[in-house]
Amino acid sequence: MNAYTPARLLAIGAFALLGGVFAPATVMAADTHQHDTHTAVLKLNQGAKWQTDEALRTGMESIRNALAQALPDVHSGKFDTTRYQTLAQSIEAQVGYVVQNCKLQPEADDVLHAIIGEIGQGVDVIAGHKSGAEREQGVVLVARTLDDYAAHFEHPGWKGLKTEH
């Protein structure tokens, strides 16, 4: 399989657009209309969670399900390099799907950019692109980012993950 499938290229482009490397709760994102930058932060909508659309819910559930399947073997040390790569590619594909199909109001989209930035950091670690970081740490980062997602977005039926960390 070609390492640069359309979904992977879209996900890589989304990460690049968002700045590549992100602080856990603050992300610098480009404003394409004014050509300046602003900070996308995790915040609520006047105390309420942001509304989601079907594409966002589908993508985030797919990421959650991939992590739920991986976590037992990750924690037991049975997850090998190939499986980490596959997991990273799966998450990237879902991020690409969300970026391509999700249609949120601008304020909610800014918060989503912060979530995507955190996921991007985790994927970099999972894929082995961050020296000095254990791939398991990337899995935990993405799992905790899903907690951030659930705390900031209305997603009926969402089930959190237990990371044992």
Instruction: Count up the helices.
Output: 5
Unreliable stretches: 1-38
The fraction of residues in strands falls at 5-15%
What string, H for helix and E for strand, traces the elements in order?
A: HEEHHHH
Shape: elongated
Radius of gyration: 15 Å
User: Which structural class do the helices and strands define?
Assistant: mainly alpha
Got a strand count? 2
Quaternary state, please?
Answer: single chain
- How many strands, what sense, and barrel or not for the largest sheet? 2 strands, antiparallel
Q: Going across the major beta sheet, what is the strand order?
A: 1-2
Q: Give average pLDDT, whole number.
A: 80
**Roughly how much helix do the residues carry, as a percent range?**
55-70%
The N- to C-terminal Cα distance equals 34 Å
Name some characteristics of this structure.
2 strands, two-stranded antiparallel ribbon, 57% helix, 7% strand, mainly alpha, 165 residues
Can you tell me about this structure?
- The structure is a single chain.
- By secondary structure, this protein is mainly alpha-helical.
- 57% of the residues lie in helices and 7% in strands.
- It has helices spanning 6-17, 54-75, 81-101, 106-126, 135-152, and strands at 26-31, 36-41.
- Strands 1-2 form a two-stranded antiparallel sheet.
- The longest helix has 22 residues, at 54-75.
- Mean pLDDT is 80; it is low at 1-38.
